[in-house]
């Protein structure tokens, strides 16, 4: 009977419960299908600290080698470390992780040579089709000469590459609390931060894919509480929180207050523009703050607005030659990192910016955090289309208001905007609102929520 991968193969990756939804036998078929679809003669693989990751990763390598591809296993790594290997070694890659999902989940993030993403429209649909067919009819015919499987440590090279992209020579001593959430930040942070004038206060650096302390998902405010308290206790200059596969980074200031990822996007954008002579395109998705395009324009750059989601950001980065891109989910993309996302490089920029002046982080980021935002508010609905139509009807033809459909529905006025997007996987509508003052933001937020939840 063919495997049903409809709940496992997502828009950008593979993700599901192990072994209920997928297992090592399917991982082996994914490895073979990856080689068949990409035409690769050699690939790189890496994995996070989840209990199921080493076995799944090795099974994938076996499947790839059976079809003749040489496999370089970089072993334990963060997702952006796998992207580094793909770029630096010029190889397609596969990263075994379920990012911030609970322990029973695992997944595969795949990329072509140079960290170019593999999603539904760029090979993932074909990979799924092959795996489903082979699971019913048997594994594909092996190559006459199987590929080899060898190990390679890329951690120090990855760290050196990141440090080469940020000038850290003149920073003052800083005290930094880092919450790795028992994820891969505990593996990469000590190497990346080595030699910098930092007093590092580690939290939950022990690699443990069962996440005994809290979920490795800093997007949920509940998972930042420990870090916030520790920053205040230590009198630290800032705190950093990484998700499970350490490709996203969240920042907490010296007061223990979270710094908006939009403010980090604007800060890094200004620094990257300065690095490139005050010229360049900066990508931002449509739920980032108004601050981002304003700061980009003020610093000589060209802001380009995109849909939410890494495949859209990376495609636009490649199309426009953008030097940097940021999302409000704390994904940060760099042209000098093969257009891939790396929260670690964004963290280095924050350290360089803070350490290059004498003031506290809260004062530094205030210039990049100009408006009142709601954050993302999810509402469960029975009919996404009907609720969106109701919102459109409420605001259409109002004087001074514009509507656009780039991603969901965005409604804009002179002093506020909001966006409502349907989830692709759940019966949810996601609201983000922003205004020039907190009172207006609250009024607009509550008005839209009443329509959504009516």
From TrEMBL:
The keyword Metal-binding applies. Residues 7-135, 157-256, 263-371 form the Alpha-D-phosphohexomutase alpha/beta/alpha domain. The lineage of its organism: Bacteria, Bacillati, Actinomycetota, Actinomycetes, Kitasatosporales. Its cofactor is Mg(2+). NCBIfam families: PRK09542.1. GO terms for biological process: carbohydrate metabolic process. Residues 376-450 form the Alpha-D-phosphohexomutase C-terminal domain. It is an enzyme of class 5 (isomerase). This is Phosphomannomutase/phosphoglucomutase.
């Amino acid at each position: 009977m063919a495997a049903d991968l409809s709940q496992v193969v997502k828009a950008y990756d593979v993700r599901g419960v192990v072994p209920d939804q997928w297992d090592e036998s399917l991982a082996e078929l994914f490895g073979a299908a990856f080689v068949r679809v990409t035409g690769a003669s050699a690939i790189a693989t890496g994995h996070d600290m989840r209990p199921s990751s080493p076995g799944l990763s090795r099974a994938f390598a076996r499947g790839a080698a059976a079809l003749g591809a040489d496999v370089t296993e970089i072993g334990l790594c963060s997702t952006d470390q796998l992207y580094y290997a793909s770029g630096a070694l010029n190889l397609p890659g596969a990263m075994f992780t379920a990012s911030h999902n609970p322990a029973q989940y695992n997944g595969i993030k795949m990329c072509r040579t140079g960290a170019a993403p593999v999603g539904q429209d760029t090979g993932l649909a074909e990979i799924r089709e092959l795996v489903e067919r082979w699971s019913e009819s048997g594994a594909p015919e092996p190559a006459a000469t199987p590929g080899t499987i060898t190990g390679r440590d890329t951690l120090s090279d990855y760290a050196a590459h990141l440090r080469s992209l940020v000038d850290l020579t003149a920073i003052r001593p800083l005290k930094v609390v880092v919450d790795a959430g028992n994820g891969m930040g505990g593996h990469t942070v000590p190497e990346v931060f080595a030699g910098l004038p930092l007093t590092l206060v580690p939290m939950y650096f022990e690699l443990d894919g069962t996440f005994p302390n809290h979920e490795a998902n800093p997007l949920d405010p509940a998972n930042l509480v420990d870090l916030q308290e520790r920053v205040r206790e230590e009198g630290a200059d800032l705190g950093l929180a990484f998700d499970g596969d350490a490709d996203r980074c969240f920042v907490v200031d010296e007061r223990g207050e979270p710094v908006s990822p939009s403010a980090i996007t604007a800060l890094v954008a200004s620094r990257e523009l300065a690095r490139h002579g005050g010229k360049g395109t900066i990508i931002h998705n449509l739920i980032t703050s108004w601050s981002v395009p304003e700061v980009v324009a003020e610093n000589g750059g060209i802001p380009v607005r995109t849909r939410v989601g890494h495949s859209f950001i990376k495609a636009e980065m490649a199309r426009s030659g953008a030097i940097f891109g940021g999302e409000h989910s704390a994904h940060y993309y760099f042209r000098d990192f093969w257009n891939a996302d790396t929260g670690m490089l964004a963290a280095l920029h924050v350290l360089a910016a803070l350490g290059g002046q004498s003031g506290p982080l809260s004062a530094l980021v205030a210039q990049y955090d100009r408006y009142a935002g709601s954050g993302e508010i999810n509402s469960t609905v029975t009919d996404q289309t009907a609720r969106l139509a109701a919102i459109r009807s409420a605001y259409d033809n109002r004087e001074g208001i514009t509507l656009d459909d780039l991603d969901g529905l965005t409604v804009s006025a002179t002093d506020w905007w909001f966006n409502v997007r349907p989830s692709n996987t759940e019966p949810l509508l996601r609201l983000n609102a922003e205004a020039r003052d907190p009172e207006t933001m609250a009024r607009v937020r509550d008005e839209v929520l009443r329509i959504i939840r009516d």
